[in-house]
């Protein structure tokens, strides 16, 4: 059974409305309107943009080998992890952890300065 996009949106709208009534009747905390909006966004993305994004990822796969890309990816993640966990690391330790992670990713190339 295959549904059109319009039919899927109707089904999600009906479910969202019904579940919102259930939420109010039982005092639930979940926001079904947000869940419905998220589902609509995902369906729209998958139908229209996902193929284009996959093609762009394949065309630019050489960026996955770029040290600057990984540094830009790991640095904010490391900061977020340390802040979320409440761990306060001095700058020297952050640099050491990042160097270790990048060395693990790229092997001896980074250690030799290539």
Describe this structure in words.
It contains 6 helices and no strands. By secondary structure, the protein is mostly helical. The radius of gyration is 23 Å and the shape is flat. It folds into 2 domains: about 5-60; about 60-110. The N and C termini lie far apart (about 55 Å). α4 crosses α5 (about 90-105). It is about 75% helix and about 0% strand.
Flag low-confidence runs. none
State the end-to-end CA separation.
55 Å
Going by helix content, strand content and strand pairing, the class is mainly alpha
Instruction: Tell me, rounded to a whole number, the average pLDDT.
Output: 81
Structurally, the number of domains stands at: 2
Anisotropy-based shape: flat
Roughly how much helix do the residues carry, as a percent range? over 70%
Strand content: under 5%
Order of helices and strands: HHHHHH
Characterize the largest beta sheet: strand count, sense, and whether it forms a barrel. Answer: none
Number of helices: 6
